[in-house]
Amino acid sequence: MNILIVTQYFWPENFRINDLATGLHERGHNISVLTGIPNYPEGRFFEGYGFFGNRTENYNGISIVRAPLTPRGNGTGFKLAVNYLSFALSASICGPFLCKGDFDIIFVYEPSPVTVGIPAIVLKKIKSSPVIFWMQDLWPESLTAAGAVKSKIVLKLFEFLVRMIYMGCDSILAQSRAFIPNILRLAGDSKQVLYYPNSAEEFYQPVNVCAEAPERVAMPEGFRVTFAGNIGAAQDFETIITAAELIKEQKNIKWVIIGEGRMLPWVKDQVNKRGLNNTVYLMGRYPAEMMPRFFALSDALLVSLKNEPIFSLTIPAKIQSYLACAKPIIAALDGEGAEVVEESGAGLACPAENPDALAKTVLKMYGMPEKDRQLMGMNGRIYFEKNFERNMLLDRLEGWMIELRENGQRSG
Known about the structure:
This protein is α/β, with parallel strands linked by helices. The protein folds into two domains: about 1-200 and about 390-410, Rossmann fold (3-Layer(aba) Sandwich); about 215-385, Glycogen Phosphorylase B (Rossmann fold), CATH 3.40.50. The chain contains 16 helices and 14 strands. It has helices at about 15-25, 75-100, 115-125, 140-145, 150-170, 180-185, 215-220, 235-245, 265-275, 290-295, 310, 315-325, 335-345, 355-365, 370-385, 390-410; strands at about 1-5, 30-35, 55-60, 60-65, 105-110, 130-135, 170-175, 195, 225-230, 255-260, 280-285, 300-305, 330, 345-350. β1 (about 1-5), α1 and β2 (about 30-35) form a beta-alpha-beta unit.
């Protein structure tokens, strides 16, 4: 099949769509990607990229065309809104000229914003191709959770936009089962909505780390509780830092934070103010391929989200990565993500935005026999292979795409 992927984010930005595109290409499909100029998470264009350079590229046999956009800056307020809208507008105008030929399927990847669906709907009208829309983030619910929009009028306008995008799609995929009722509320019961969770790249698996590995040198000595990913408002670092402060007398417990994000300056400031420099270790950002080795050197892996209704519906993508690496998980969140951790037997969960509960959960994990933590990790890997394994999910997606293409050909 000829498949066009529409996504605001793509390689060299680190998003799961990179691996999905590669997996479909490995199966013999011709993959083209309409995306933006890479600027996430730094908020500025990556080196070698700009408005006038690297507009077409090839990534592992995948053809990439880039529509111009305004970089996201610090990722808040007006700059972020302009970033979202600039891609939606430019991709809608440039996409029909940049994406030549016919496509059997247009596949949309939406981790936010939902406006990425607009150029896909435009292309559908021109190319007469069915659209599959993969929801990673619910809109307009995510706008209220982030505190970005409080106006009821603006939220109603976004609700109308989301409804129009849903109605223009032929199939909608939800990364969490809990998304489906919200999607159907706007899309209508007649719309095909399917559960399609995230997987994890094949390099996420248990590994042995040699003595001279740089990851071993970088990690502190002690019982390591590792968080890896975006250091943002949604991840509730207020709770993490407060929990670390509550048990800082347990000097063998080390909180390892790998990643970057707009909350990083605040986290650094709080670590200094609260005297946590020997407890909380800010490691910076590393390539995703190095994560399994950091995880192997960790005693527990931490995932956290704020106490917001929208976040209780989602499964943070890092949970799949953690499960795949067979390490015990501490989940400071509510709802669907916590249920996965508990159902799998892969770790311990505690309520979101509860520093005392998180501190007690870390202490409980710390006090467990090593063999019990190893069993949690093994449980997680088994659960991953049954529910989230990459090739199983690619089989499912490929089957839906073929069915949608054949139905379109028959109806045509």
